[in-house]
Amino acid sequence: MDINLKGTINNNRFADSGAVGAAAFFDPTKPIYNTDGAYNGYWNWASLDATQSLATINPLSLLYDRDNQGQTKRSLGNIQLNYKFHGFEELSANLNLGYDMAETTGHNFMKAGSVQASMDTNFPGIGNGNTWENIRRNNILDFYLNYQKEISAIDSNIDVMAGYSWQHFYYANHDISYSNYTEDLGVKEGYEYLTDEGRYILKNHRQIPYENYLVSFFGRLNYNLMGKYLLTATLRNDGSSRFSEKNRWGLFPSAALAWTISNESFMEGTKDYLSSLKLRLGYGVTGQQEIPDYQYITSYTFSTNPNSTYFGTTLLKPNGYSPDLKWEQTTTYNVAIDYGFLNNRINGSIEYYQKHTKDLLNTVSAAAGTNFVNLITANVGRMENKGVEFNINAVAVQTKDFTWDLGYNITWNDSKITKLTTGFNPEYQGIDAGGNQKHMVGEMPNTFYLYQQVYDENGRPIQNAFVDRNNDGQITEADKYLVSGKSPMAKVFMGLSSQFSYKNWDLGFNLRANLGNYVYNGVAAGNCTSYNYGGLNFLTNLYKGYQDTGFSALNVTAQASSDLFLENASFLKMDNITLGYSFANVTKAKLSGRISASVQNVFTITKYSGLDPECGGYDSNIWPRPRVFTLGLNVNF
Fold it and tell me: What is the pTM of this model?
């Protein structure tokens, strides 16, 4: 019997992340503080002017004029029971019961007198906010029987397991909106107020519970014959409450065969240099159900906005729904060779795989009049992935005091959408994936969909000049094109790890590279003109990309969809480096342990001009990833 229990209390102060962008674009010629005390002492452009209300807010005002704090109390634990049947020791039973529960409370208030409060159209200047409390629960029950038997008569070993799993996820949120802490707002039409400890409450309570269940029946068979031939077969039957009863269950089989060639008698003469050689074949189906809850059920949202009424009655708005949702399924085939040389001092594998995904779960556009929303979760189309993986590990140097271990891997991967409609339709324009990207048959997922930029005789881009690809004499959405060959997904992934050990010292690092991935620089596209620098009765800081384009303030929306801002984002990253020293039998107490120092996100080498070349294709990052330094000390008594 194994019992684990853990409890934590975590206090947080949440900063307004918009302060990072504000620090980049706030007019750098202006002071931080003002002298007249307006806007709680922080200098800001006058927000009462209709155009100046669009100006960047003082970043310190964003940080300190908001009181946003929360406390999370969390408890998690489990009890695991393992029992071997007396007189039948080959059979054992395992039961695991676990829970993870968290309760969070907090408040988020905008101070009265702040520039943000002055922009509140309902209660200008007085400040407001809300308190919240939410509960998250995750309960699990796992039970399985395991039977292991060695059958010496046929030189075999058998391992059979069958089990059941039940999991429940629950989330509930209770939110109350307040006016300013101490001000009586008086009577405002359409609002009802209640007092609570000196606060004035807008009667806006929201209780939003969500829950889902995941139930599984599963079994596995491992069979080993003569230490040479191995068979693994599994079968899962998973049921998710996120799907309707007719589509709730998914059956997912898998099987793998392995032949340890190096154990065959005809390989005896190769042992001096070929330590191991194994051939593997695999097949399997997996399911995916990570979508929001209740998507297949008809539901309504009850409006809590007193301004949204119809003949005095609060509105009920129907939500979008997708009644035919079902499991997304991915079938994988693979063939691989595992190898080892020089007593496995050099070892690794090479593998070829194919993955075929059907009934893709995705958020797609809904045709006008077919649903109550324009975006809906649905099963759409099929996709194919194929690739080759190669990895090698080696003990490069090994002496009495010094060891050097190396590991290298490389993967080539190709992804392609093979189906998006029920029938063949050459005129189909694909699915809008957002961020100037589209899903289209024959292309990689999230292929970029952009205007083709026109350049002058000196190679400089001409603002709002794009290629009229359909030759209709005007530039419209129909002139965008799929930028084939410049995918947000890398074609090649590589990794290199190295570990040095000298006596009690150790030094290790990990390098990683992506080749062939492209990123649309959304920050450059949205700030490439002088639009942000004057012209609206205020000034902001100017993005350096303006020096490359020289664009004016005209029609920035169209310019922000140009292939001018599509950049090669191949990169080499050092994810981490760690230096450590191990000690033993120190002092009379014979202390032992390890001292370490590590750095994460050490460096990135790339030609990409934005902050993050690894961002999923569309980069709107103004906040860079942090570089983290850690010192550690572990001591054993």
Answer: 0.83
